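Lab notes, practical 5.
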Amino acid sequence: MSVQTSPLDHPWREPGKGRGLAEIVYRFYLLKLIVHKDLRVRYRGSILGMLWSYVKPAVQFVVFYFAVGEFLRMNDRVDNYAIYLFSGIVIVNFFTESFGNATRSIAGNYALVKKIYLPRELFPVSALWVAAIHFFPQLVVLIIGALLFGWAPTFLQLLAAVGALIILAIFCLGLGLLFGAINVLFRDAENLVDLFVMVATWASPVLYTWQQVFSVSEKNGGWLFPIYMLNPITPVVEVFHWAFWEPTIGATGESLPPNMAMWMGIATVVSLATLALGEYVFRRLDGRFAQEL
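Output from the prediction step:
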């Protein structure tokens, strides 16, 4: 004989007192629904739809290629500059979309946040998922382009690229949780993030090479380059150059900065620390989201 239970028999949990990011596992179906909603809202009334994930990086690539490659003569300095440029662009685009969308994810879903309680971490994670959906078509284009230039990577290079992408995803999620929570209280966070993503393109070796930064640093006492490499995006971009661009020029590791293993280790630690800080702040402010929105 089964015993019926009342909803009051189940313990209630305060907002922000749940399992945190572990809710992704327990609420995975709900996460997929949110991702589907985000994609449907984004492309509602759009003629091109998902093709916009190709159009934006294509235009960005053409502008940078001619402005920097042709006019500033980077084509003469870097062999197969097109592959070098695009392998950096796809990574920076993933960062900017993940970070920007995750920051706006709570405020942008205010109707759901105010009506019902659900694990709010799902919103920044869904923003990261949507960015990944837009990233992989660009990655396919990069691979096709690299193959046309004779791309033949080693297994270690491919493994390093996957690891670098995971590290960047952790960093993006940490920043998204942190600024997504702060953005609920102070909408200035959105403008601050816009500045960050604008600087990200120029603060990473996408349009230029790390050797140029190293040369300037050496002329000024050598202090600039270590600071430059502390940015987790920088070693991630360099790993993507190593995995996708270097095999097209027949190099054997010359493209990597000195002590690359150390910089990747630091990037991993910074990313995990950012995730821990973002989750802590997010859960501390979670209970205020509904009333602030």
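Observations recorded by the TA: The mean pLDDT is 83. Residues 31 and 86 are 31 Å apart (CA to CA).
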